[in-house]
Amino acid sequence: MIPVIEPLKPGSTIGILGGGQLGRMLALAAADLGFDVHICEPEADCPAGRVSAKVTTAPWDDLAALSQFARGVEAVTFEFENVPAASLAHIAALVPIRPGIKSLELTQDRWVEKQFIQSLGLVTASCAPISCMNDLHEASSQLGPNGILKTRRFGYDGKGQIAINAQSDLAHIWEGSIGQDWIFEGLVDFACEVSLTLARSADGEIAAFDLTQNTHRNGILRSSFVPAQVSLDLSQQALLQATQIAQALGHIGVLAVEFFVTRAGALIVNEIAPRVHNSAHWTQDGCNSSQFVQHMRAVAGWPLGDPTRHAGHVQMTNLIGADADAWPSYVSEAGTFIHLYGKREVRAGRKMGHVNQVKSHL
Ligand code: ATP
Ligand code: MG
Question: In ligand 1, which atom is closest to the CA atom of 186?
């Protein structure tokens, strides 16, 4: 059992598992607080590594490299939830991991996550685990016909998802799906999507950002804005539900909960991200403390910062693929803050950066 760590002193080194854009923005926030960051990531020349003090480039199953990494840092956090459980256990034996392993175990598998959410008395889309053709037939007749077949693990940005409807050839779909575990989700006819991002400190203090409204394009988050166009009552319910989830996980750090808002005005939990989240990037330019600062404070065992929004309206827009070519127009726009991730290659569907447009002040 790892003892509770004392608050880390400035000058300490924090390890981050994963070297993408979330790791990069976490590293920049850590630097502001006086910490050094050591990134551990399988791919060379990663976006986070280029702004960090140290990088370990090693595959997740290289336990010798993970040991060396863990011995050189005072605490470890992660920027994505798909680090293999065995690697995490190996690191956790050497150094505190924040948030804890429970947050990862319950969110790496969509079916396990859905059951956890339901066990808290919260509502999810109707769903069933699928491991054979018969399961798929039964699920589509009982929960469908309209639904989405999603891989239980490793999905992100809408990847690993297949839309199902009454005309779908289930046998053909299943033929191309063998070899993975899946979950079938009934299609939710939602009015809008919102997310609630909060930070929870090592002593259980919670600081939440304003509820955010999200729009997606081709399964990828396109834009997020505050304030969300929903009732105060619904915002308060979202806060209560996200708080309940964070407490049940004993989560330390930032956590985001994605919700569907039904046409009748009820909340359905879509998924939990046990980390900083794309839909809260607006906090960088719209709040006193951004989600990245909040996360590094929590990981360091510091008190949380102030999540208050200081702008009347903020819109975050992702720059996906060639969208990033428009950077010259954004850099000369008043009230627009551009954040580029330094990715070497533009690819269709790849998140290259985002802009925060602060439309009016309070
Ligand atoms: P991300 O990493 O961007 O959160 P993901 O790959 O984990 O995405 P989901 O959040 O499960 O995927 O789905 C992406 C989007 O697809 C949702 O935000 C929503 O717009 C749509 N979607 C997913 N599941 C359902 C559902 N059951 N009913 C209706 N729409 C859905
Ligand atoms: Mg999602």
Answer: 27
